[in-house]
Amino acid sequence: MGRAAAVVAVGPTDHASRRLDVSIPEMVREAVDRCLASKDLSFGQIDAIVIGNMELFEGINLPELWMATAIGAAGKPMYKLNNGGTVGASVAVAADHLVSSGLYDTVLGIGYEKQSEGETQSAITTVGDPAWERAVMAGAIGNFAVMASTYVAASGVTPEQAAQVAVKSRRNACRNPHAHLCRPDITVEQVLASRVLAEPVRLLDMCPSSDGACAIVVAAEGRAEQVTPRPAWFAATATAHDTQFMGDSPQRLARMRSLIAASDRVYAKAGIRDPRQDLDVAEIYEPATYAELAMYENLRLCDWGEGGALIDEGVTEIDGEIPVNPSGGVLATNPVGATALIRVAEAALQVMHEAGDHQIADADIALATGYGGNAWTEALILRGGRP
Amino acid sequence: MTAENPLRLEYVANFEYAYAAGRYASRFMTALRDEAKLHGTRCDECDVVLVPPRPVCGLCGGATSDWLEVGPTGTITGYTVVEIPFIDPMTGRERPVPYGFAFIRLDGADTNIYHFLEENRHDHLEIGMSVEAVFKPPDERTGTMADIVNFRTLQEK
Q: What is the pLDDT of residues A157-193, one digit of tens each?
């Protein structure tokens, strides 16, 4: 166990389907500028940088090279991560490790994506092994829909329950000035009437494609309290992977082995016995409504098969017992390489008591997750107050 | 500073790749191409039969040594009907919708593979249905998973 580290500053960009107004480095700079300005920090105070995105989406090799000037990296150690949708959470975990190990006192973490500039759906097919899976892929949505069918069979969740997740997300997003999709008047009926992409998944069940970036600053104990009065301390982090082939587990969503493994580890490290009771808020990486319901079960916010009941009872609403994604979550904002870092940043804002209109009162303990690639999971517990 | 008329720069690339299939896929694909037969490997430790075949068990980490024939019949363990257009990575063209897509557990195997279904009406499908591989004619098979056209259902819902 190293020294304590905390998120001390957060910077989101504005999000849209197309940020035609900025180049990728300019967009990333927007996040970094907001992050540093929020706590009167400067580039001179940053010791090292961790950056990540999905390189094939924009088709840029060595993107950190073009980014070096925009993010003040020249002459500094910069590390790049590139591990799918999980990458933003991995950026945060790596920043924590670099600081808690004692290597650096202050680390800047960045995630970004400009989905409008490239070939998201085609690029994602390269996740499949060319021998076994690439010839028979149906895109992220088709493959996800098959997994969703196994979850529906295992849990009995209904399209109406999934639609309630879509409604919760887009309404919460209206309290978050940086969210992409705010829909204050969205209804369950509208979700159920939206176009079928691949049964049981409808258009409004899915996350959007967004352009955007996110930056955080992670600082060591001693330094962190100088930057902000209430840092978001890393209480526990865990990484877990699943097997290569999606079909090795027919219940890839109903029983998410990597999410179960990672969350059990952080719960144990942080002394969380009953997550629903002990957590104040969760910011989870839910790429689709059905995934959020399955994640309730896999994260032990409820018993197996009770994910649908949890949304029916309003337990995960912003004023519920355990609010999930008060920011609107991935269903409202999805610049893939930044998406998981936004989960960590939002969890940090909650325990720093800086989440504005979507603040959960007195939040002290928050869960954040990253999920992507071939079921790679990161789980993090952030805690306000003392390290 | 805000640009009044931001420009976009187009770039079209056509990169070509060729991958070594490897020892396991080469053996599997050769039998698929030449004999229309499917195989898995059995884990020496936990006894499960793994498809795709591989040297190490994905479930327990044990080594595998036995190859055995599986399928061509099997069971649907998850399914959908895809209605969103998608560029087929093998052809570069949009695959016509709707089409059935499923997890199939081949008879004799303990893991599942993704593949297409002949049936494309969602209400005609359910988990647990029996299916059978439809192979391309011998002279059209080239040694890829696409040598299986799709799986057809052997029973009605």
A: 999 999 999 999 999 999 999 999 999 999 999 999 9
Q: Is 0.95 exceeded by the ipTM? A: no
Distance from CA of A366 to the nearest CA of B (A): 32
Does some domain include residue B77? yes
The alpha carbon of residue B95 is apart from the nearest alpha carbon of chain A, in Å, by: 9
Section A64-93 average pLDDT: 92
Three-state SS for B67?
strand
Residue A374 banded pLDDT, cuts 50, 70, 90: low
Residue range(s) defining the domain that contains residue A23:
5-120+210-227
Residues A96 and A186 in one domain: no
Note whether B19 contacts A131, CB cutoff 8 Å: yes
Q: For A296-345, how does the pLDDT look when each residue is reduced to its tens digit (9 = 90+)?
A: 999 999 999 999 999 999 999 999 999 999 999 999 999 999 999 999 99
The answer to whether the CB atoms of B84 and A148 lie below 8 A apart is: no
Interface of A with B in 188-207 (CB under 8 A): 195-201
Q: What is the pTM of this model?
A: 0.96
Decide if B9 is inside a domain.
no
Judged by CB atoms closer than 8 Å, whether chains meet at A138 and B86 is answered as: yes
* Rounded CA separation B125/B130 (Å): 10
Residue B8 with chain A: CB contacts under 8 Å: 20
Which is more confidently placed, A265 or A242? Answer: A265
Domain range for B39 is 22-153
Q: Note every long-range contact of A116-119, with CB atoms under 8 Å and residues 24 or more positions apart, other chains counting.
A: A116/A17, A116/A18, A116/A19, A116/A20, A116/A209, A116/A211, A117/A24, A117/A57, A117/A58, A117/A211, A118/A56, A118/A57, A118/A58, A118/A59, A119/A56, A119/A57, A119/A59
Does residue B15 belong to the interface with chain A, where contact is any CB pair within 8 Å?
A: no
B29 touches chain A (CB under 8 A): yes
- Residue A342: CATH number of its domain: 3.40.47.10
Asked if A353 contacts A363 with a C-beta cutoff of 8 angstroms, the reply is yes
pLDDT tens-digit readout, A225-256: 999 999 999 999 999 988 888 888 877 888 99
Cβ-Cβ contacts under 8 Å, B99 against chain A: 138
Task: List all residues of chain B from 69 to 108 with a beta carbon under 8 Å from chain A.
Answer: 77-84, 86-87, 89-90, 95, 99, 101-103, 105
